[in-house]
Amino acid sequence: MKDGVLKCINVDDHLLRSLKEDIPSEDITTQAVMPEPCIGKADLISKQDGILAGIDIFKRVFELLGEVTFETNYKDGDFIYAGTSLASLTADIKVILSGERTALNYLQRMSGIATLTHALASELKGFKTKLLDTRKTTPGMRLFEKYAVKVGGGHNHRFNLSDGILIKDNHINAAGGIRQAVNLAKTYNSFIRKVEVEVENLEMVQEALEAGAEIIMLDNMPLDMVKEAVWLINDRAKIECSGNISKSQLRAIAQIGVDYISCGALTHSAPILDFSLKNLARVHM
Predict the structure, then answer these.
(1) What is the SS3 assignment for 177?
(2) What is the pLDDT of residue 284?
(3) For residues 177, 235, 262 and 167, what is the CA-based torsion angle, rounded to 10 degrees?
(4) Checking DSSP bridges between strand 50-51 and strand 79-80, what pairing results, if any?
(5) What is the pLDDT of residue 8?
(6) By three-state DSSP, how is residue 261 classified?
(7) Which run of H or E residues covers position 37?
(8) Checking DSSP bridges between strand 39-46 and strand 85-92, what pairing results, if any?
């Protein structure tokens, strides 16, 4: 699995919390119709075309409930087609029925993000510009959602508030100005971390440059102003564009020569990719 997400110490904790949310005491329906252990087999079916992400997470949910045999020829990052049987799952039927929704929730959410990211990242092919995610993630799901962005061909911005310095408008107001904020950040910050500043106009661009910002984020700027800002910065800092940027705008912004485009929609607005667990049948051993 890319980047060793399954090896992260927090993954099982996340999955167990999700299972506990769905099964606080028992799965009463399954317990009623399956009072005794019985091995069964079911198929994972894709219902839409898209990019697969989270197949190992899907499997792991069931493993946390019992012994599982999982067979698939697909991996994260593969393009999948509607109607395809992606995997087969063999386990106690109670395990299959009780884990189904939680496992599908992760797979659908992650694959939806990977699919949207792939569509947007494809617009930037041939340019130096990288597509970044943001911290606009579902609470408790950041690990999985940012992983899905990478599966789809995007790149991760800072993972959390401990991961990097990004001075935004409220930080600037709190510090009393861009210069003051950057000076305070550089004094406090380790030399190995770069200081990024969010700006909204050309005057702020100039102030951020003079203060020594290493990355300048152009927030909600019209295209003509982005062009002027790139000319003004003149390779003295890395340049990131952000602020409700649509798919139709990506190539035009990339052509100007910015280094990064950040897009909160990758995680906060991606529709799910639909899957089903079907054809459940008893296996006679």
Answers:
(1) coil
(2) 74
(3) -20
(4) antiparallel
(5) 62
(6) strand
(7) none
(8) antiparallel
Catalytic residues: 101, 136, 168, 198, 219
Residue type at 114 in one-letter notation: A
Q: Where in the chain is the domain with CATH 3.90.1170.20?
A: 2-120+271-282
pLDDT in tens, 220-241: 999 999 999 999 999 999 999 9
Answer for the pair 234, 205: CB distance below 8 angstroms, yes or no.
no
Question: Does the reported pTM lie above 0.90?
Answer: yes
| 66: exposed, middle or buried (Cβ count in 10 Å: 0-12, 13-18, 19+) | middle
Is residue 217's pLDDT more than 70? Answer: yes
Q: Which CATH superfamily is domain 125-268 in?
A: Aldolase class I (3.20.20.70)
CB atoms within 10 A of CB 82: 12
For domain 2-120+271-282, the CATH superfamily is: Quinolinate phosphoribosyl transferase, N-terminal domain (3.90.1170.20)
For 156, phi then psi, to 5°, come to -90, 130
Per-residue pLDDT tens digits for 9-66:
689 999 999 999 999 999 999 999 999 999 999 999 999 999 999 999 999 999 999 9
The pLDDT mean for the chain works out to: 95
Burial 192-210 (b: 16+ CB within 10 A, else e): eeebbbbbbeeebbebbbe
**For 75-117, how does the pLDDT look when each residue is reduced to its tens digit (9 = 90+)?**
999 999 999 999 999 999 999 999 999 999 999 999 999 999 9
Q: How many CB atoms lie within 10 A of CB 45?
A: 17
238-242 β-sheet, strand order: 130-132, 260-262, 238-242, 215-219, 195-199, 165-167
